[in-house]
Write a structure and sequence with these properties.
two-stranded antiparallel sheet; elongated; His-Me finger endonuclease fold; mainly alpha; 2 domains
């Protein structure tokens, strides 16, 4: 995946500066409100990229059914809890076509093969 160009990075920083100013204006001197506003916006941006927890849970349930309860890589029975959605391409999001359900061990191996590390 290509990194941001200098122009894109500058545009992103400008957006962040504007957003921070708007958040501060709404929060005023109330530190608790500032904290809650930041957290609310952070979660909504995360949902834009990853979907909501409910959407991902429904996708995991559908994947478990379609994979007959087996890890897509090792074909062993998935644990009742802790199976992990693996995206083939992160940019394509959590969709039925772009994901597979894996046991933790296989997910770690798949991430390592793609050059990602959990540590």
């Amino acid at each position: 995946m290509a990194s941001l160009s200098d122009n894109d990075r500058a545009a992103a920083i400008a957006i962040l500066d504007q957003l921070r100013a708007q958040i501060s204006a709404v929060a005023g001197e109330d530190r608790d409100r500032l904290f809650q506003l930041r957290r609310y916006i952070l979660k909504r941006l995360e949902f834009d990229e990853r979907g909501t927890p409910t959407q991902r849970r429904k996708l995991k349930e559908a994947k478990r059914r379609s994979q007959l309860g087996l890890c897509a890589i090792c074909q062993q029975a998935l644990p009742a809890r802790g199976a992990e959605l693996d995206r083939f391409r992160a940019i394509d999001g959590y969709t039925a076509r772009n994901t597979q359900l894996l046991c933790h061990s296989c997910h770690q191996k798949a991430e390592a093969e793609r050059g990602f590390s959990s540590s």
